[in-house]
Amino acid sequence: MKTKVGLLYGGKSAEHEVSMQTAMAVLKALDQEKFEVYPIYISKDGGWNKGPQLTGPVTNVKELAFSNLDALPPTALAPALFKAAEDEKSSLDVIFPLLHGPNGEDGTVQGLLELLNLPYVGNGVLSSSAGMDKVIMKNIFAQAGLPQVKYVWFIRREWEKSHEDAYQKVEQKIGYPCFVKPANLGSSVGISKCTNRSELEKAFAEAFQFDRKIIIEEGVTAREIEAGILGNDDPECSVAGEIVPKKEFYDYKAKYEDGNTALIIPAEITDAEYNALKEMAIRAFKALDCSGLVRADFFLTREGKWYINEVNTMPGFTPFSMFPLLWKHTGVAYPQLIERLVNLAIERHEEKQHIKYTME
């Protein structure tokens, strides 16, 4: 029998369009001889909309954005959205969340799926929420002994009380150049590079548009190296890849719009450097208690020192995305990668069914 897969995409997030591109890419790769595919679209204002089973190719991303006229509230999710068809009693076999950013990649949807006891691809509640919040993530990495660049963070209220104190703290503890980022967002949304006070002031205002918490990181002269992690309790590491931006840094436009970035796979690093990266990537995966997939991002300085930058618990699957390309060069083609993720989701769900929840 075919595995019934519910694709969950869109989302009430600044990364809505990224999620739509990811959904298109995954749809093209899913083998409909093995899978029945059911689209579940979340609109920008939070409406949940289920489409009919997809039985043919989707050629335009607009075909995946269903009308909000039939949108359902979260209270109606279990019976209406997560069945294969209205006349069937069986639920979908697995949910594939293709959501990026808040309200999707941050543990909220994962918590819903846990309550419904449905298998789902990717990381659980804790790893998703900790991986989404860059401050919490870095604090956990520090506890795990992973090397990182210097960082400080602020909540909006703290900044509003005294702009000057905030700027002085950055200049004293971090200096220039530095990067200002929303703490709970990805895809380089709201990120600015600062080389002076004027740019810093503008960067704070920009980042606080997207989150109540921001993080400021030390800028280092280094190569940007990434690796993909795949698995549950015994994770595997892909080959390494290098990002060489043609602009100041790897921003949203370079990632998703113009492809104005060179991706070098495999990265030109020594065996010793790769082994160090692999060890740190798997240590980061386990420190956050991750499952399914993670893309781990690192800096490698001219002196040969590694710093972990961050992990992405739901990396994109667009044509320009690094994660599937890393695994392709490791020997796992895109359709097989998706199959492995589905199998890992079912494996993890089955293991959880053995947990005892009563004292009887």
Descriptive key words:
Rossmann fold, single chain, D-amino Acid Aminotransferase, Chain A, domain 1, four-stranded mixed β-sheet, five-stranded antiparallel β-sheet, Dna Ligase, domain 1, alpha+beta
Mean pLDDT: 88
The secondary structure category is alpha+beta
Question: What's the total helix number?
Answer: 12
Question: Whole-number radius of gyration?
Answer: 21 Å
Q: How does this structure look, described?
A:
By secondary structure, the chain is α+β, with helices and mostly antiparallel strands. The chain has helices at 16-29, 77-81, 108-115, 125-132, 134-143, 156-161, 163-173, 197-207, 252-256, 271-287, 322-330, 334-352, and strands at residues 3-10, 35-42, 48-50, 94-97, 151-155, 178-182, 192-194, 213-218, 222-231, 236-245, 261-264, 292-301, 306-312. The strands form 3 sheets. Strands 11-10-9-12-13 form a 5-stranded antiparallel sheet. 41% of the residues are buried. Residues 250-258 have low confidence and may be disordered.
Give a short summary of the structure.
The protein is α+β, with helices and mostly antiparallel strands and 360 residues long. The chain has helices at residues 16-29, 77-81, 108-115, 125-132, 134-143, 156-161, 163-173, 197-207, 252-256, 271-287, 322-330, 334-352; strands at 3-10, 35-42, 48-50, 94-97, 151-155, 178-182, 192-194, 213-218, 222-231, 236-245, 261-264, 292-301, 306-312.
